[in-house]
Amino acid sequence: MQKRYAGFVCFLLSLSLEAAFAQKEVIDAIADTDYRHEFEPLQKQHHTRVLIDRYHKTIYTNEGFATGAHAMLEIMDRDRFSVDYAEEALSQDILAQADILIIHGLPNDKIALENGGVFWKSPLSDSEIDSIVKFVDSGGGLYLSLSHFPNGSGALPLLEAFSVKFRDGYLYSKEYPSFTDPENGRCSHYFGMSEDDNTLNVDHPLIRHGLPVRKVDYHCGAAIFRNPEDVVLQFPAGSENYNKDNTFSEASGYYAGMIGFEFGKGKVVVAADQGMFRNFIFTFDTNEKVYVTITSPDNDNASLFINMMRWLSPKISRESR
Fold first, then answer.
1. I need a surface site. Which of 159, 193, 204, 286 has the fewest CB within 10 A?
2. H/E element, 201
3. For residue 289, what pLDDT is reported?
């Protein structure tokens, strides 16, 4: 079964591909609901409880297959994770019901001021940030999936609480040109990140003690960094950060697209591409079809997702992974 979401995905691309000065246009979008990743699920019941934020404007405020989360949810179900949704503010009482919290996409609130200014404000309250940090410190797992402006910077106060630096723009590396506009696009599409070009850190415990991951597809996103040992997906040295108006901001040899680290008794994974585990297939006006991206037969994004969830769980030992 395949579901079309042209209107929804055109909106989605307006936040990613078109913002990256795309020359190709999406004319159709299909939720690839036939996809079933072949892997060996955990045999023992581990009772890991996953709580997905639907109180804020995450991808899960969409309905049904329009979230693009079908593959993630199906994998978690087969791997014996139980899933529930947070429909109210992320308090300590709410988080006490979970082992892993997922916040997938978190745009800022846009507040127009009376004299023409615009205030981009995080939707997270101070009390929510306090609750989330204490939840992780006490042993919980957090998966925070971001994007470029304005779909990631809503999490900036939470990132700062975990000492994660975030560059809210479009990440460009000459080694990985924009898929939609190779000449002028300044938001790279990192198809085929691997150990061969030092963009995939196979020594990170998230990968080293899990299913084989040799190639990862990563779409147009922003840049994050913390400590070198935290890096899962590393952007090439000299990668550049561009502002939303295509002006150059800065270059760095330390930018990452995905990091994972321990914090207190818990663990955190942050990714700056909110599409890497979703299951859309885009058709461009050139008739070219692109998987976005977990369902692609040419990458290991699904195995990376499985490894990530098992690593984040405080109830799954390294030996059982």
1. 286
2. none
3. 74
Nearest CA to 312 among 119, 122, 98, 125?
98
Phi, psi of 198 (to 5 degrees): 60, 30
CA angle 155, 117, 16 (to 5 degrees): 45
Pick from 85, 82, 83: which is nearest to 61 by CA?
Answer: 85
| pLDDT, mean of residues 239-250 | 86
Per-domain boundaries in the chain:
2-312
For residues 270-288, give the mean pLDDT: 83
Share of the chain above pLDDT 90, in %: 53
9 torsion bin: left (phi>0), alpha (psi -120 to 50), beta (else):
alpha
Taken in order 42, 44, 48, 54, the sign of the CA dihedral is positive
Q: How far apart are CA 30 and CA 304, in angstroms?
A: 23
Supply the pTM of this predicted model: 0.89
Q: Determine contact, residues 249/242, Cβ cutoff 8 Å.
A: yes
Pick 189 or 226 by higher pLDDT. Answer: 226
106 contacts 60 by C-beta, under 8 angstroms:
no
pLDDT score, position 16: 42
CA distance linking residue 59 with residue 115, whole number of Å: 32
- How long a stretch of residues is the chain? 321
Where helices occur in 68-140 by DSSP H, the ranges are: 70-78, 92-95, 126-137
Question: Is domain 2-312 classified as CATH 3.40.50.880?
Answer: yes
Please tell me the distance from the alpha carbon of residue 98 to that of residue 90, in angstroms, as a whole number.
11
Q: In sequence order, what DSSP letters do the residues of 244-276 get, joined into one string?
A: TTS-EEEEES--EEEEEEEETTEEEEEES-TTT
